[in-house]
Specification:
GO terms for molecular function: transmembrane transporter activity. Keywords: Amino-acid transport, Cell membrane, Membrane, Transmembrane, Transmembrane helix, Transport. InterPro entries: AA_ABC_transptr_permease_3TM (IPR010065), ArtM/GltK/GlnP/TcyL/YhdX-like (IPR043429), MetI-like (IPR000515), MetI-like_sf (IPR035906). Pfam families: BPD_transp_1. This protein has one domain: MetI-like (MetI-like fold, Orthogonal Bundle). It is about 80% helix and about 0% strand. The chain contains nine helices and no strands. Helix 2 runs antiparallel to helix 3 and helix 2 packs antiparallel against helix 8. The radius of gyration is 21 Å and the shape is elongated. The N and C termini lie far apart (about 50 Å).
Length: about 220
């Protein structure tokens, strides 16, 4: 184990550049998947017959596919039909598609967990369905959704490492490049990588706990 050789300034900077790519891809994917998943989950909760059925088929299909397969599809298969994405865009697209399906189910389940009597009471008081959803149901449901949503975000951050298969220059990819220079770098480099992932994910977990405690 060569810690001094592994932790040179150039190697550390290379890892930080990879970590920046990891965080950037994760952040963009989180924002997009939360928006798309929120829309899909809400539409499914609204139970519009044809729309809900189509969305249910799409969501269940995506949820039962390996993320790695979706990454391969976005980078290698889409160009065959005229849609060519760069490495970063392919990774973001694949993660967004996969996480949107996961989040939509969390959001739909959260909305369904609210007592239907509240919907009936709100409607009988003169509120429209949209007003009832936005002012009565959604605020309560979001409080219940916080832990699983943050857990899904943590999974997304870790899943960015799967994009190493398309050579996305993220943290794991850059760690492998450094490790390839000398076998004795393996343990020091991957210990540092593990610490970097752990630090961010642990901070997310703490933030989720505090938010959950504040809302209760």
């Amino acid at each position: 184990m060569d810690f001094s050789g592994a932790y040179t300034p150039d190697h550390l900077l290379f890892l930080l550049n990879g970590f920046y790519v990891t965080l950037k891809v994760a952040f963009i994917s989180i924002i997009l998947s939360f928006i798309i998943g929120g829309v899909i989950g809400t539409l499914r909760f609204a139970n519009i017959t044809v729309v809900s059925t189509i969305l249910a088929v799409v969501v269940e299909t995506i949820r039962n596919l390996p993320l790695l397969l979706i990454i391969f599809f976005t980078y290698f298969a889409l160009p065959e039909v005229g849609i060519k994405l760069g490495i970063t865009a392919s990774a973001i697209a694949a993660l967004t598609v996969f996480e949107s399906a996961m989040l939509s189910e969390i959001i739909r389940s959260g909305l369904q967990s609210i007592d239907k009597g509240q919907i009936e009471a709100a409607r009988s008081s003169g509120l429209t369905y949209i007003q009832t959803l936005m002012t009565i149901i959604m605020p309560q449901a979001l409080r219940r959704m916080v832990p699983p949503i943050v857990s899904q975000f943590i999974s997304l951050l870790k899943d960015t490492s799967l994009a190493v298969v398309i050579a996305l220059p993220e943290l794991t990819h850059n760690a492998q490049v450094i490790n390839g220079q000398k076998g004795s770098y393996l343990i020091p480099i991957f210990l540092l990588v593990a610490l970097m992932y752990f630090t961010v994910n642990y901070c997310l977990s703490l933030a989720a706990r505090r938010l959950e405690a504040r809302e209760t």
